[in-house]
Amino acid sequence: MATQHSQKLARSMMAPSVIALLIWMAVPLAMTLYYSTLGYSLYNPISTPFVGIENYTYFLTDPTFIAALTNTMVLVVGVLVITIGGGILLALLLDQDIYGVNIVRLLVIAPFFVMPTVAALVWKNMMMNPVYGVIGQSMSAIGLAPIDWMTDVPLLSIILIVAWQWLPFATLILLTSLQSLSSDQKEAAEMDGAGALSIFWYITLPHMSRAITVVILIQTIFLLSIFAEILVTTNGGPGAQSTNITYLVYQQAISFGDIGAASAGGIVAVILANIVAIFLIKAIGKNLDA
Amino acid sequence: MGKIQLKSVTKAFGGVKVIPNLDLDIEDGEFVVFVGPSGCGKSTLLRLIAGLEDMTSGTILIDGKDATNLPPAQRRLAMVFQSYALYPHMSVRKNIAFPLMMAKMDKAEMNRRVENAAKILNLADYIDRRPGQLSGGQRQRVAIGRAIVREPAAFLFDEPLSNLDAALRVGMRLEISELHQRLKTTMIYVTHDQVEAMTMADKIVVLRAGNIEQVGSPLELYSRPRNTFVAGFIGSPKMNLMSGAHARQHDAATVGVRPEHMDLSTSDGLWRGEVKVAEHLGSDTFLHVDSKDHEEPLTVRANGEFQVKAGDVVYMTPQADKMHRFDDKGLAIG
Predict the structure, then answer these.
(1) Contacts of A122 (CB under 8 A, 6+ apart)
(2) pLDDT tens digits, residue range B210-268?
């Protein structure tokens, strides 16, 4: 294992994949940085003059940017709250010894296998459509006015759809954590006079803290870059009510043909993601230490 | 107070009867040890007393009051688990204070009791550490600390020493005995180690397959085992049990002689045999002897050093007054 010879061998064997990964990461990043300094419009791709930081000032002072930033944060936090709250409840349920629990577990995990575009379209057309969607019809049936989800509460609709997709992931991670809690500890607490709620609060929840941290970290990474669900449901609208940073970058590039501004937006998104990551690691990363 | 009575208690898991029918009285302040081979139901019995399992039928009285349907927390019993079952994210102090916190005791009284427990068990040096930073023996002390702060009617120990190494086990054994002297609270202790049972107990309950084989003080069990099972289980090394011609000489189906109740000689004696293995401990010598007169090899113990080695010939004479006789059902005669 640790002889010099084997270390050298290991290094040379790993080199190709490390180099490939570096190129994979570095080249697009460098290209994006490069484009972000050019006045590069798809409507006039012949002339791409160097414009310095003009693209950045344009992107950052665009009023839509602030809206998109807020929407991104609301989306991430909203989905995290629903998936972790719901995930803990579902995990507690699925940890019980009930008849047919294996099938129920499989069903709970199912949404994770549906691809985002399909899930979003199904939700938009079959669940949330005010006229023939399931929710609209049930509300009409009991005499309530149906909600036009995509128009009236676009961001909430997207939060619900995304939360539905990520709930299984959270449930699964939290369930495995729950199953690793020794029954001795619960029994000891029971003998010490703790009721069901106290056992949950003082024993179960602290035991799950590491799993909750993992769920928050992994989900945040993916939730910052939600795109498909917005594209196929609200197109970021009405106005910019459901536009997040990722969708704004897409709009700059495809709708407005402004590659320069889109690249600048991309770099801003990378920096934001890193800020969030550092903040998260500082705030809750200590749970990951043994 | 901590008088516990079990009346026709039965327990079945599915169709399997783990405890067919059991009656037992445990007096206040007694140190009772449940001992038996693996799977004899001793841990199940303890969990029934604790309330962690439901009885299939029967009654349990604690201090004369029916506790059959009381939840564990209201039985005023404290349990020390084999795995210690400490709360890993809480400091030692919080672990010990947890039952008091659950009882909503006021801060001053809580601190007084925790400090007191820490003093009794020498926990003061690491009271602010977490269980993960402690050694096995220290964790065991914390688990005991968590039990004594509640000032329970009785302590339940579920094989508390089996995760410790041999040297530490002897030390903790002494500490638990001292604790019992000091607190004079009823203690029920489950173990499969008959040495622990012999050294600690006021009263030993020998269990096999959920049935009580014998109840008595350690010396009663040693000198008057009720049947061949108890005779073979209590005492180390095991009693030599012989059937056939030797037993018939004594009007019994089986006779037993403890290894320490045989006189050894290199020149003459009743039975001649060849030493298979000689274990020289310094304080004692254990010989495993093959004898033509017996089907099974015999174990003999000599006090101090007895100079023989494998292959040597020895002569053994059982001490007539220390013979145990059993009938064809395995029950002791006379």
Answers:
(1) A114
(2) 899 999 999 999 999 999 999 999 988 899 988 878 888 888 888 999 999 999 888 88
CA distance A95 to chain B (A): 19
Residue in chain A lying closest to B70 (CA): A191
Q: Within its chain, how far is the Cα of B38 from the centroid?
A: 12
Pick the closest to residue A78 from A22, A159, A165 (CA basis): A159
Nearest CA in chain A to B74: A193
| Contact between B104 and B138 (Cβ < 8 Å) | no
* Residue-range domain boundaries for chain A: 32-288
pLDDT digits (tens, 9 = 90+) for B44-55: 999 999 999 888
Domains and CATH numbers, chain B: 4-230 (3.40.50.300), 242-326 (2.40.50.140)
Residues in chain B whose beta carbon is closer than 8 A to a beta carbon of chain A?
50-52, 71-73, 77-79, 81-83, 85-90, 98-99, 102-103, 132, 146, 150
Indicate the residue of A182, A190, A206 with minimum beta-carbon distance to B73: A190
Fold of A32-288: MetI-like fold (1.10.3720)
ipTM: 0.82
Question: Using the 8-state DSSP alphabet, how is residue B33 labeled?
Answer: E
> C-alpha A257: how far from its chain's center?
27
CB contact under 8 A, A190 and B72: yes
pLDDT, tens digit, 9 for 90 and up, residues A35-73: 988 888 888 878 888 888 888 888 888 888 999 999 999
* Best of A97, A181, A187, A192 to mutate (most B CBs within 10 Å, chain B): A192
- B87/A189 touch (CB, cutoff 8 Å), yes or no: yes
Q: H or E element: which one contains B189?
A: strand B186-191
Output the pTM of the full model: 0.79
